[in-house]
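Saturday, quiet lab. Running sequence design on the structure tokens for the scaffold JK sent over.
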């Protein structure tokens, strides 16, 4: 019998109980080495029920903002795969400005929470070092389905070293979308804004477009978009399906 577990557990593990063998399989990277594939190669994942449920929940919320009927399918929660999840994100992006894309993500995130959740979060997690480190630790297992493997790292916030950083090894969302605009407008900026302004816990995300890794720093106030290095990032000319190679900056960031 095969059981699913959180992706941070070690595998494989086989236990005997009552004469039966139970194989505990953790959903996650399906690469032989157990780490993301090198740049230029697509990492293979084997998603379990936990991951598919989250993909389905987010995709169904986002589909309400999709103008095209093509992607609106009433699949069972466990039938969702990551490619379809990313496809819904792309359709949300179509015809919307940078600000409008970010607002959609904000509405989706709010819709996933019970009423009054941001206010309760502010009470439970005031912007302290402990809150920043605690949320960094939670990010690793609970966002594995979205961004892939990550680890807590030590960072410096306002001159103080603390373990409130998260290093995403190779972002699954960026790798599958291949789109700088989607990374910035539908992940980095709205996530930063949501934690900083809705939850009251500053968060800065620093994607590395050279290797698709990303550093998240809880407790650090994000810079204005115009002063952020990502505002000048060009398209992925070779992998983005809507890339504009004649523009020095990704058009979706303008």
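Result came back. Writing it out in full:
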């Amino acid at each position: 019998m095969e059981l699913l577990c959180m992706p941070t557990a070690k595998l494989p593990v086989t236990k005997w109980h009552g004469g039966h063998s139970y194989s505990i399989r953790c959903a996650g990277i399906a690469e032989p080495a157990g780490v993301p594939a090198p740049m230029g190669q697509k990492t293979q994942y084997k998603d379990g029920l936990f991951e598919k449920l989250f993909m389905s929940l987010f995709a169904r919320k986002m589909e309400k903002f999709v103008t095209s009927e093509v992607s609106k399918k009433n699949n069972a929660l466990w039938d969702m795969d990551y490619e379809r999840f990313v496809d819904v994100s792309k359709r949300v992006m179509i015809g919307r400005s940078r600000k409008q894309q970010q607002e959609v993500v904000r509405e989706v995130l709010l819709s996933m929470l019970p009423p009054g959740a941001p206010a309760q979060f502010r009470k439970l997690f005031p912007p302290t070092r402990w809150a920043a480190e605690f949320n960094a630790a939670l990010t690793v297992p609970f966002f594995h389905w979205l961004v892939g493997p990550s680890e807590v790292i030590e960072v410096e916030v306002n001159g103080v070293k603390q373990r409130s950083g998260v290093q995403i090894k190779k972002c699954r969302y960026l790798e599958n979308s291949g789109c700088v605009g989607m990374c910035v407008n539908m992940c980095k900026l709205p996530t930063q804004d949501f934690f900083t302004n809705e939850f009251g816990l500053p968060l800065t995300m620093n994607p590395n477009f050279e290797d698709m890794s990303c550093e998240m720093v809880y407790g650090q106030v994000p810079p204005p978009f115009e002063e952020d290095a990502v505002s000048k990032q060009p398209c992925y000319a070779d992998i983005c399906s809507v890339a504009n190679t004649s523009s020095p900056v990704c058009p979706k960031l303008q």
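Notes for JK: The chain has one domain: 49-64+78-253. Residues 10 and 135 are 22 Å apart (CA to CA). Ask whether to fix the surface positions before the next round.
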